[in-house]
Design a protein that fits this description.
TPR-like_helical_dom_sf; mainly alpha; DUF6817 domain-containing protein; single chain; DUF6817; Serine Threonine Protein Phosphatase 5, Tetratricopeptide repeat; about 375 residues
C-alpha cells in the first residue's frame, strides 16, 4: 500500500462565503434575468437583432452578452453598468465587427429602452479606443481625480471617473467571459496586438484550438482590478469580489506557469498509476494562482480518490467560492454552471465520505437534497 500523502496545509484556499454562494446560485437558472426589470426589458430588443446567430469567441454573441451581464449581476453592479455589459458591443468596436445598432441613427431608439445614462456608456465604450483605454489604465495613466484622457479623432477626450470605473469593471468581466488559448494566439500581446499573417500562422488560426485556459490574461484582469484602488475611483462602484476585492495582483509568470501546470494534468502528461505527482503539480498551480476554481476543483477530486476527504472538502469549498466570485469559467471546455455542478458533487461526497471506489459508479453520482 502506498504511504498516505501529507495534508494540504499551506495552500491558499478560500472559505466558502454563504452570501456569495447564494448570489451565484440564483444565476444558475437562465431565467434569472427575467427578474431584473431593466435587463428583462432590454433583452428582447437585443435578441431581435439575431445575436443568438452570431459567432463570438467561445460561443455565440448572445452567450457572450449574457455571460458578461451575469458576472456584473454577481458583482452587484448598478443597472446602468449591467446594461452596459448586456449591450457593450452593439454599436460595434475596433475588435468586434458586430454592429447591431447604427450609432448614427439609432441611439435614441436604444436610449428609449435603457435610458440615456446607460446608452451613453454603451456609445462611449463602443466608439472610444478600448485598446488605448486599457493601455492607459495598465500604465497607471489615470488623472488625480480618476479620469483618463484618450486621443479620439485627433483630439484629447476626457473620460470621466465614473465611466472609467465602469469601463474597467466591464472590461474585466468581458475578458474573463471570452478569453481562452485561441485568443492568446490570434490576439497575442493585447492591448498591443501584432499584425501577423494568417496564412503563415494557419495552425494558430484553427478555431477553437485545444481550448486551453489563457496563460496570460488573468494577470491583466488582476491589474485592471488593482486600478480600482486609485483614490479617484474608490467608492464610485462596487468593487468586484475577485482577487480579494481587487487588492491583489497576479504576476504574469505565475499566471502562465499555473495554467501550464494545470493543463499538464488535464492532458494526462503525468504518471497515470499514482496520484502523488499529479496532486503535487496541481497544488503548485494553486499556490501560483489561487484565484480561479478549476485547478482547485480537479485537486479536490484527486484528494477524494486518495481518501483525503477533509482536504477534498476544503479544496471543493474554495473552488466553489472562486466560481461564485467570477460567474464565468476560466477553463472554457464546459460552461460555468457545469463546473459549479460538478464541484457541488465533489463537495457533498467529501462531506459524506462516500466517493465511489469503482470507475463505473462515477456515472451514477448525483447531488442529494441539502
Amino acid at each position: 500500500m502506498n504511504a498516505p500523502l501529507p495534508p494540504a496545509h499551506g495552500l491558499p484556499l478560500q472559505r466558502l462565503d454563504a452570501a456569495q454562494w447564494q448570489r451565484a446560485k440564483l444565476l444558475l437558472d437562465d431565467s434569472w434575468i427575467e427578474q431584473e426589470p431593466p435587463l428583462a426589458a432590454a433583452l428582447p430588443v437585443v435578441l431581435a437583432r439575431d445575436v443568438g446567430l452570431d459567432w463570438h469567441k467561445a460561443g455565440t454573441f448572445r452567450h457572450h452578452l449574457l455571460g458578461v451581464t451575469r458576472t456584473l449581476q454577481l458583482w452587484q453592479q448598478p443597472e446602468d453598468v449591467k446594461l452596459l455589459g448586456l449591450l457593450h458591443s452593439v454599436y460595434g468596436n475596433a475588435f468586434v465587427d458586430l454592429v447591431k445598432f447604427d450609432a448614427n441613427s439609432e441611439r435614441s431608439k436604444l436610449a428609449a429602452v435603457v435610458g440615456e445614462k446607460a446608452e451613453q456608456l454603451v456609445f462611449e465604450f463602443c466608439t472610444l479606443s478600448r485598446a488605448q483605454f486599457v493601455q492607459k489604465v495598465l500604465a497607471g495613466q489615470i488623472e488625480a481625480d480618476g479620469a483618463v484622457v484618450l486621443e479620439h479623432k485627433g483630439s484629447p477626450r476626457r473620460v470621466e471617473p465614473y465611466t472609467v470605473a465602469a469601463f474597467i469593471i466591464v472590461s474585466m468581466a468581458d475578458t474573463m467571459e471570452q478569453w481562452f488559448s485561441w485568443q492568446d494566439d490570434i490576439f497575442s500581446s493585447f492591448p498591443n496586438v501584432p499584425q501577423r499573417s494568417q496564412k503563415a500562422h494557419w495552425m494558430a488560426s484553427l478555431w477553437p484550438g485545444p481550448m486551453r485556459p489563457s496563460g496570460r490574461m488573468l494577470s491583466q484582469i488582476a491589474s485592471l482590478g488593482l486600478a480600482l484602488q486609485h483614490p479617484g475611483l474608490q467608492g464610485l462602484l462596487p468593487v468586484p469580489p475577485v482577487f480579494a476585492h481587487c487588492t491583489q495582483g497576479l504576476a504574469p509568470a505565475a499566471d502562465a506557469a499555473a495554467a501550464s501546470l494545470y493543463w499538464s494534468v488535464i492532458q494526462q502528461d503525468q504518471p497515470l498509476t499514482d496520484l502523488d505527482v499529479a496532486t503535487g503539480v496541481l497544488e503548485q498551480a494553486v499556490q501560483l494562482n489561487p484565484w480561479v476554481g478549476e485547478p482547485q476543483m480537479v485537486l479536490a477530486q484527486l484528494y477524494l480518490s486518495a481518501g483525503r476527504d477533509a482536504d477534498a472538502k476544503a479544496a471543493a469549498d474554495s473552488a466553489l467560492q472562486a466560481f461564485s466570485q467570477w460567474g464565468n469559467a476560466w477553463d472554457k471546455r464546459v460552461q460555468w454552471d457545469a463546473w459549479v455542478a460538478w464541484t457541488r458533487i465533489l463537495q457533498q461526497h467529501a462531506q459524506n465520505g462516500n466517493w465511489p471506489e469503482r470507475l463505473d459508479k462515477l456515472n451514477n453520482v448525483a447531488l442529494k437534497p441539502e
